[in-house]
Write a structure and sequence with these properties.
two-stranded antiparallel ribbon; binds iron/sulfur cluster
C-alpha cells in the first residue's frame, strides 16, 4: 500500500497536466486523480460505515509509516497539548478548505501538499511520541474524527466480553498473557464502541474475551452514545459534515456562490478597490493554472460560502437538538449530544453521495454514464434520513418519556434531517 500510495501521489506531480483528450485509462494524472478522489475517498468512507475502520488498521499507508517510525523513534511521552480532542475536527476543516481553495481534486501538486504533508507529519509524530504506537492516527489525523463517527454505525466490531475477561484473570504465580499492542491506544478492556478501534485484529481472542462480532448498526449510537458522545463530535456532525463539507462539495454548482461572488465584486468596485477582482496567488495558496485561475474575490466568496453553510447547519440543528433534549425532561447536555449522534447516518450519507459526484463527473468526462445515479443518490440520502429519524425515536425511548414526547422529539429533529435531505436532493436532481 505504501508503494502504491507513493507512486500515485508523486508520479502525477512529475509529469505534465493532462490535455482535454486524455482519459483515465491512458493518462497517469487522470488515473491517479480518479483513484484518490473518485474511488479511495468515497469508498473508504463507505467501507468504514460497513465494516468499521479496517482501512485504518490494515491498509492505511500513513498509519503504517507512523507506527514504523514509532517503533524506531524516541518513544517520548505524549504531551497534553497533543491530546486535545478538537485536533481531528480542526484539521478536517482546514484540509477541506485548503483543498477547495487549491483545487486538490483536480490537480496533483496540491494533492502532494495535502496528502504528502499529512504523511510527513504522521512520520514525524510517530518518530517522537509513543513506542510502536499510532499517536498521529489517534489524536491528530484529519479524517480520524469522521472515520470514528462512521464506525459507530458499522455492523461489524470487536466485542469485549467483560465476564470472560475477568474469568481469564491469571492466578497468582502463573505467567500473565503477553500484552496486546493496540497501536491506536484503545483501552481494550473497557472498549464499548468501534469509534476508536482500527480493526487491526491484534487483540482478537485475547484472554478468550475479544472476538469479531456482528451487531445492530443502531446499537452503539442508541445504547452507548449517551456515555461517549461529546461536544466535538456534535460539532463535527452538525457544523462540519452537515454544513461546511456540504458547502465545500456544492459550491462549484451553486447559483448562490455566483451571486455572492458578484456581490463581493460590487462591494469592491463601490469602495473604489478593483485589484482583488483580478489578483491571484501562487497555486499552493489559491488555484492558479493556465486557463483555470481563482482571483481573491473567488477565494473570499468560497470561504464565506463554506463558513455560511456551517453557520446555517448550526442554526438548523442546534435549536432542534436543544428542543429535543428539553422535551425529554429538561435541558441536559448529555441528552443533547446523545441526540446529535442520531444524525450520523444522514450526515454520512450526504458526505458519501456528495463525494460520489467526483466519481460521476470524472467518468462522465470520459463518456461513461452511470444510469439513474442522481436518483439513486437522492434515495440513499432520503433513506439515511429515515434511519436518523428512527435513531432519534429510539434514543428518546431510552430516557423513558411517553410516546407523545418521543414523537415530539422526532418532529423537532426532523427539521434538520429533512433540510439536509432536501439540500442534497436539490443538488443531485435540481
Ligand atoms: S488491538 Fe484490538 S482494539 Fe486495538 S485497534 Fe486492534 S482490533 Fe481495535
Amino acid at each position: 500500500m505504501i508503494a502504491v500510495y507513493l507512486v500515485l501521489l508523486l508520479g502525477p506531480a512529475l509529469i505534465p497536466l493532462p490535455a482535454r483528450t486524455d482519459f483515465i485509462w491512458n493518462n497517469a494524472v487522470r488515473f491517479a486523480q480518479f483513484a484518490f478522489w473518485g474511488v479511495w475517498w468515497p469508498f473508504v468512507l463507505l467501507s468504514t460505515a460497513l465494516v468499521g475502520r479496517f482501512w485504518c488498521g490494515i491498509l492505511c499507508p500513513e498509519g503504517a509509516l507512523s507506527e514504523w517510525a514509532s517503533e524506531r523513534g524516541a518513544g517520548r511521552a505524549i504531551p497534553a497539548w497533543l491530546k486535545w480532542p478538537g485536533w481531528p475536527t480542526v484539521a478536517f476543516i482546514m484540509t477541506t478548505i485548503y483543498g477547495q481553495l487549491t483545487s486538490v481534486y483536480q490537480y496533483p501538486a496540491p494533492a502532494v501538499v495535502v496528502l504528502g504533508g499529512s504523511t510527513l507529519a504522521a512520520i514525524a509524530i510517530g518518530a517522537r511520541y509513543g513506542k510502536a504506537k499510532r499517536v498521529w492516527c489517534r489524536f491528530l489525523c484529519p479524517v480520524s474524527g469522521v472515520f470514528g463517527l462512521l464506525a459507530k454505525i458499522a455492523p461489524l466490531h470487536f466485542k469485549v466480553d467483560g465476564p470472560a475477561w475477568h474469568r481469564a484473570q491469571p492466578r497468582t504465580g502463573t505467567k500473565p498473557p503477553v500484552a496486546v499492542n493496540c497501536a491506536p491506544l484503545v483501552p481494550i478492556k473497557t472498549m464499548r464502541g468501534a469509534g476508536g478501534c482500527h480493526m487491526c485484529g491484534r487483540c482478537s481472542g485475547y484472554r478468550g474475551a475479544i472476538r469479531l462480532a456482528w451487531r445492530s448498526p443502531n446499537e452503539e449510537i442508541v445504547a452507548v452514545g449517551g456515555e461517549t458522545a461529546n461536544g466535538w463530535e456534535t460539532f463535527l456532525i452538525t457544523a462540519v459534515l452537515m454544513g461546511m463539507a456540504t458547502g465545500a462539495l456544492q459550491w462549484s454548482g451553486s447559483a448562490l456562490y455566483v451571486t455572492l461572488k458578484a456581490q463581493i465584486a460590487i462591494w469592491c468596485l463601490n469602495a473604489g478597490v478593483s485589484w482583488p477582482l483580478d489578483a491571484s496567488l501562487p497555486w499552493w495558496m489559491l488555484t492558479n493554472y493556465p486557463g483555470d485561475r481563482m482571483t481573491l474575490v473567488d477565494g473570499a466568496a468560497l470561504l464565506i460560502f463554506i463558513a455560511g453553510a456551517g453557520l446555517l447547519a448550526c442554526v438548523t440543528c442546534l435549536p432542534a437538538l436543544s428542543a429535543g433534549a428539553i422535551l425529554l425532561g429538561g435541558w441536559s447536555r448529555r441528552r443533547f449530544h446523545h441526540l446529535a449522534q442520531a444524525l450520523i447516518p444522514v450526515a454520512a450519507a450526504g458526505l458519501f453521495c456528495g463525494l460520489l459526484s467526483l466519481t460521476v463527473t470524472q467518468l462522465r468526462m470520459d463518456g461513461v454514464r452511470i444510469p439513474m445515479i442522481d436518483e439513486v443518490r437522492s434515495l440513499l440520502v432520503g433513506t439515511a434520513g429515515f434511519w436518523s429519524l428512527y435513531l432519534v425515536y429510539s434514543i428518546a425511548g431510552r430516557y423513558g418519556p411517553s410516546r407523545f414526547a418521543r414523537l415530539g422529539v422526532s418532529a423537532a429533529i426532523s427539521v434538520p434531517i429533512v433540510a439536509t435531505c432536501g439540500v442534497w436532493a436539490l443538488f443531485f436532481l435540481g
